Every structure is written in C-alpha cells, then in structure tokens.
Known about the structure:
By secondary structure, the chain is an alpha+beta fold. The chain has helices at residues 2-33, 46-52, 56-64, 67-74, 87-92, 111-118, 141-151, 157-181, 195-211, 247-256, 258-267, 270-308, 318-328, 338-368, 371-384, 397-400, 405-417, 454-458, 461-464, 525-542, 552-563, and strands at 37-39, 95-99, 104-108, 188-191, 423-427, 433-437, 440-444, 449-453, 543-547, 566-567, 571-572, 579-583. Among the domains are: 20-138 and 424-460, no CATH class; 157-212 and 353-421 and 470-510 and 514-584, no CATH class.
Amino acid sequence: MLAGYTLLLALAGALLGDYVVAIYRNVRRAQRTGLPYVVAPLPWSVPMMILLETAWLPYIINRWLPLWLADTTNDPMNNFRWRIKNRQVKRYGGVYLVVTSKAVTCCVADAAVVSQIVNARNEFPKPVWQYSPFPCLPCEDKEWAHHRRHTATTFNERNNELVWKESIRQATEMLHYWRQTASPRPDTLALNDISEDIVQFSLNVISGAGFGVQIPFKPSLTHNNSPHDADIFQDTASPPPGFDFTFRSVVAYTDVKIRTVVFANLMLPRWLRRPLAPLLRRAFAAHRDLENYMQRLIETGSASFAGAQGTKEAASNLIHGMLASRADAADKAKGLSDREIISNMHIFTLAGHGTTETSLKYAFVLLALSPRVQEWLHEGILDAVRNEPADPAQWDYAAVFRKLVTPLCVMLETMRLYPPVVTVPKWTGASPSRIHYRGRDVVLDPGVSINLNMNGLHYSEEYWGADADTFDPARWDAHNSSSFLAQYANTPGLVAPGLEYPTVHRPVRGAYIPFSDGFRACLGKKFAQVEFVAALAVVFRAYRVRLADESDAGRRQAERALQESVSVVTLGMVEGVPLVFERV
C-alpha cells in the first residue's frame, strides 16, 4: 500500500515538475517581448473543453474565485472569455500576453494593432491546426485563394435580393405561426422561449437563399415516401426513404451537436466506431445524411442551373453561384470540385445561419429591456416603408433595404455587445512576426497564438465613449450628431466589413470586428445583414416586445441570462427569456 502511495506521489511530483518547467519556459518567452503578461493556471485543451461543459467547474471558477483570478482563468478559455468584457484590457493594456503551460497567447484589443495583423496575412496566418477536426475549414495560401476566388462571387446582389424575399416570407410565416400557437389573442403573443423558432427561421433562410430549397416555417405533418430528388428536401413528419433525418432536422441536429458529430465521424478511430455505434448512432446517421443531402443538392442544383442559364434566376442562390464559377473557369479542372462545394456548403450552413440566429436572439431580449430603443426602431421602420405596399412581400429590395437604417443599427449594436464569434484567431506561424505598439516594434516568437480580443475592443471606452457597455443602437445612426462616433464622420479609411453604408457612423478602423477584417473578412456579411434587417422590419412594423415578467426580478433574470452567455460554436444564452409580443 505504501509503495502505491509513493508511486502516486512520484507521478504527481513529476507532472507538477513538468508543469512548472513549462510555465517557466513560456514566461521567459513572454518576458523577451517586453509586453505585459499574466500567467493563467489552466491551459486550453480538449479535456478542459469537456470539463468546462460540466456544471461544477464553471461554477467554481465564476462563483468562488476572486474576480481577477476568475478573469485570468477564463481568458484562455473560449467558452467563457466573453464574460471578461474589457476588464483584462484595463488591467494590462491593449496588447498583453496570456501564459499557460501549453502556450503563449497575444491578446490584442488595440485597434491599430488589429489593423496591422489582419492586413499582414503572410505574417499572421490563420491557425489552421486549430481546425484540424473540421476538414471543411482549414486552408491557407493557394488553397485558400482557390476557395475564395470561386465563392466570393456567389455573394452578390442577386443573392441578396433572394435573401430579402426569403427572409420576409419566413418572418411573415413565423408571425402567423405564433398567432396560431402562442396565444388565443392574435394581438398578444406569449412565448416562453423563442430560441427554437429563431433557429428554424435562420435555417429556412439559408436553405432557400443558399441552397434553393424553400421550406415553409410551419412543418408539414405528412410523411415523405417519395424517392425522387425533387421531394426529399420537404419538411415532413418523417424522413424520405434511405434517410434517418429530414433535411431541416439534420442541419439543426448537426448545428447543435457539431462536436459530437465531428468526434464520432472524424476523430474517433475506425476500430472504435462499431463498439460505440449504439451510443453514437444519431451522430453517425447525421453525418451520413447531411453528406447525402448535400450531394443531392449539387445534383439538383446542377440540373436547375443548366435550365436557368441566361435567366434572372441563374446563379441567384449560393449553389448556383459556385456552379457558375466552375462553368466560367477557362480550365474546368480549376473550378470547385463537388467535394469542395460540399465543404463550402457546410461552412455556409454553420456560419450563415449562426450569425443571424445569434444576433436575432439577443436583439429581441435587448429590445424587450429597452422600450425607448424599441420606439426609435419602430418609428424608423414606419418612416422607411411609409410609401411602400402594405404587404411586406411586395417590398422591393433595392428601394427599401437601404432605407431601413434603424434595424441595421440594431444589428450593428447587438453584434458589438454580443458578437456571434468572440475571438478572431491568428498566429505567428513558423517565423517571428512584428507588431508596432505604443511607439516601438515588438517581436513575437514563432508559434505564438494571437487572439483579436473582440470583447476588449467592443467594450472599450476609448473607441465607444463612456457608455460603451450600454445598448444604444442610435450611436450608429449617421444623423445622430451627438454620438461619440460622430467625431469620425469625415475620416477616410474607416469602411470596415459590415459598415459599407453611408447611413451609419464608423468607429476607428480595427475597433469593430464581428465580421473580422482584412483579407479574411466574412464573405456573407451582407447576406446576414439583409436577413436580420428584413426580419426586424416585418416583426417590429406590427409588434412591440416586452418581458413576460416585467417586475424587477424578471428584469434581473433577463439581464442575468444575457451576462451569463457562453460560447460553444457561437455565443449563446444558457437559459431562455420568456417574451410577449403585442400588436402596435
């Protein structure tokens, strides 16, 4: 027995010794830069990611530890990094290092340094090794340029018009569904949790405008027994023959269970898959069904694209756009292969609907907490559609979207405070890299991870004023001369991704990065903006939203739900907030 204890103590001592040596080495690396640094006790790793999804470890970190130690512990952890806001930046400055036993990470919340990094793609590449379990995501250099060349043209005004129409259709059907199910009174719609409906809305939009598959908001109760390609995408009570999921249900399942699906199908050794099949059956089936649906989409898309060439419908959805890019290539082999198109479709699905879904969920709760903002939003919508048809389905995209300034400002402000993705990762690659910070050049060693610190930037009083932590969409309105951002009104070079409109104010370049910036800026930013703006215009033209519980306790519960958000794939609230929509 004594020998066993001795062995355990020796093993623990060896592990502790390795930990201390690793910390010491990384501290020395940090000290060579001359930047402020902080030592975090726990490194980011797959086991740590799993532990952070339990209830007890986050509770200990966030409830028992002093705030400074909780912030330091959370800083390397993607799940809880957003909760720090800009507190670490106040402690250590706009550029500081986080040291763990595994890595040195440079956290950047200085707008000028952000601009340097995003515009130096070769010096600060994407850390593709972080995405190795996701074969559709990691690429750099020539491979990245190949994908970018053939996907960038798919996001165009023809597609935006399709997004506009599909978003209006889905938002209108969603309201109709709420009137049927949420309350016996159509002028008062009580909803315990809007999360599933918002997910359904955004998935339906990406299905229609992205993949050419129009799905009604209210699912059909019929059963799908058709083997024909044209029918297998119907949203029915049962999947088509040969599938375990309907098209919409497999996209929804994969979105929620992405880690399980990736682990089961791409990380688990083949020899373990059979014995674990009973536990992971749905994960295996989801991966198989999604692949088969995507392949069928390419086949049906190829047929419909061939028939639509020369018409207004040609290349209007994203699949048609990628097929058109392949058809236009001088050398057909240089276009996107079916496998590459499927990979990009996976990215469009995850990123495309995730951005709008996350932003809409937060916007509805924030607006319920802000009656004055809601009144400003409502008046702006009425002013924009004053001379337009009463039926939103007849609103012309080119004429109406540009006038809907208040919904766009709500989206910009929601994404400032609650960005769907809380960090933009970079690294220094295999060579040392330089940044210029506070009047001097700083050399970062090879292999240093870089976190473009979105919460540090977006909550900075330096870039947003004294009310940086306040939800105030009017700060973005170009007609608001009292906004802190108005001081930059005539400053050149501030047109960052998502801020291309003359109707909005722009902050210092590099201070606002929910769509990233530079060479790798989000291709689908306007897709998301058109979808969000159309949805808010349809809903808040006719309804206002309030908390179901308007007491002080109800308000505190809603604010707590916002502040205790965590990031899995995207930022999200852990608990729902009951809302009531009342007809204006």
